[in-house]
Amino acid sequence: MTRQAPAGQGHTTRFPRRAIALAAVAALAAAGAxxxxxxxxxxxxxxxxxxxxxxxxxxxxxKAVDKIPGAVTLITKEEIAHTxxxxxxxxxxxxxxxxGYAESSQAMxxxxxxxxxxxxxxxxxxxxQGSPLREGTRNASFxxxxxxxxxxxxxGPSASEGIGAAGGIINYLSKTPTKMGSExxxxxxxxxxxxxxxxxxxxxxxxxxKADDWDFMGAVSRIDRGMTYDGHGRRIGLxxxxxxxxxxxxxxxxxxGYNFGANREQRIQASFSKFKIEGKGNYHLVDGxxxxxxxxxxxxxxxxxxxxxINDFSQSTxxxxxxxxxxxxLSLDAYYADQKMRYPAENxxxxxxxxxxxxxxxxxxxxxxxxxxxxRNAYSHGDVFGVEGxxxxxxxxxxxxxxxQWLALTDRLWxxxxxxxxxxxxxxxxxxxxxxTISGGFRxxxxxxxxxxxxxxxxxxxxxxKGGTLNYKANLPNIGAVWKIGNGWSAFVSSxxxxxxxxVGIPLRNISYPGQSVAGILDLQAVIVKxxxxxxxxxxxxxxFGGSYYKSKSDFGQSLSIDPVTNDFxxxxxxxxxxxxxxxxELRATRDLKFTALYSHTSGKTWFTSGGPLTKxxxxxxxxxxxxxxxxxxxxxxxxxxxxxATKLSSRDLNVGTSAEEHTKxxxxxxxxxxxxxxxxxxxxxGIENLTNKFYxxxxxxxxxxxxxxxxxxxxxxxxxxxxx
Length: 725
Known about the structure:
Elements: H1 15-36, E1 55-56, E2 63-64, E3 72-75, H2 77-84, H3 92-97, E4 121-124, E5 127-128, E6 148-155, E7 168-174, E8 181-192, E9 200-210, E10 214-225, E11 247-260, E12 266-279, E13 284-286, E14 297-299, E15 310-325, E16 328-342, E17 366-382, E18 390-407, E19 412-433, E20 436-451, E21 454-455, E22 464-465, E23 468-486, E24 489-500, H4 505-509, E25 527-540, E26 543-562, E27 569-590, E28 593-606, E29 616-617, E30 627-637, E31 640-649, E32 652-657, E33 660-664, E34 667-677, E35 683-689, E36 716-724
Parallel strand pairs: 4-7
Antiparallel strand pairs: 1-2, 3-6, 4-5, 6-7, 8-9, 8-36, 9-10, 10-11, 11-12, 12-15, 13-14, 15-16, 16-17, 17-18, 18-19, 19-20, 20-23, 21-22, 23-24, 24-25, 25-26, 26-27, 27-28, 28-29, 28-30, 30-31, 31-34, 32-33, 34-35, 35-36
């Protein structure tokens, strides 16, 4: 895994920069508000037609977005396509469009990527990705983004989603057939950094079929990537948790559904997804020099005798829905998922064993394997007991999750097999009282973790550890309200709790004293987060504007520090308080000209010493620096448009220890994309990432860690052509 320096968190930013950022977002609101005065109703377009009400499904049961008491970001297929014009990076679109989402790691690993300083629950068509038992930071690479039609981001903990949703929900939804009959879309893309080994290409095909009762969606793709270069024209160093550079990615997806019943009110659907990204092994990492300002680079050849790093993920689902059962709606979703994560080879102290090779000479590779299956269900009913506007939703989740980690080249156990099973009933209700919607809910998490007896590695003194069973029980209430003020304005307030397990595998593999048992490890206690939030939204014919302020607290949270001998992760359990605010805005100045902007500020604190005050600021691995984003899209012809975007991360100075400081230097990146629709000839797109070819060091790499002095991508130009027939 990537081994990073201890991350504090926190924030100090100069006022003028923050004022400028706030002004930029607020300017969109002012312009939109002026346009709104000319509209008679916030829910009508200029031509008098009703605006489409956006429905989100991350809440398990479809819900109008304006009835959810919290900050919600809906990423459309157009926004996804804009990012895909420049990069296939799955998290780049989140960094560009979600205020509280951290900087993209630009790697196979998503280490340091979080939502408002907390780990979010990632879903693909409602199925959880990754495993809380052994967080391998690979849960953001699980499919081809060309298959994704929409992303829904719901900030804050969710009672209806349960385990893993302490920071919020990121739900990736696959495309669905929209036209009757068959439709085939072919995609070809070529990218280059204008160096001999920097070329990358993609070939993909999507097939959609829709009839009266049947529909099918299928997709295949292959991506072959070369090396990446920074703004100085140097190869970027391979990531110590796995790189997307010098790799291939293959994806296969199929989804079929059948509607039946007297009014087609019932549906059964099955899907299968298989995704594998694998390093080609042509290069090895060469360390840079922080004193000289020379970042890591990569050179040929690859390391002999090692296995390629991989992220191999597959999932299967079977769903049943009944939209008119006893006057309500029922959904049942069964799933099975399997993930294998292999990391690059290392010869660190924790890999050594004198029974295998002389100390200091042994090279080995970490590999994590997780499997999960479960049943998620929900039933909703409106106007309960004849009360108009009263809706109830509820269900029971059954989950079984297993994980283990070993050293693959020598077949040594590193983290013992772990089995987690839970039964979690949940209940949500909402009541519309005129312009006010009140909502509340409750989830009962009742889980059990089983760990067998095991022996630690040589580095941890080969001690015998007695396994055991740990019980996890938690009551997770939530309450909130939305007030539709009028003229397109609304306000919300909410309070709720989230639940997740700590990164269980880390404390288990680090036991080094004899006589210990799993049941006595305090660090294995659950992480429970309480989140309070207040905010507002405005939505009108000419645009939208929103803002929110939140406080997130966990009395026994988690953060990572670094073992000074192995540079490996150590899990630190301590109180964590996070707060922040966000602003987003969109202005449709004309039918052909649109502007967007976002701003986020987050700070986090914990203690210096156990039991002390929470005065230690948390650093860049946990808390992202202030972020300002903006874009302008101009449709200059009916068949052509261009978009210019910019993302700025601010510089920051923090006190992260009694005698330690963290200084990170910000940067601003511009990107550009253009589309030309040829009609029956298809659509051509040009994308330029890092338009000015700026040299910068990724924020999390500016803090000393294990071989992590990594620069960001320089200018990359991509040409894409799609044909649909």
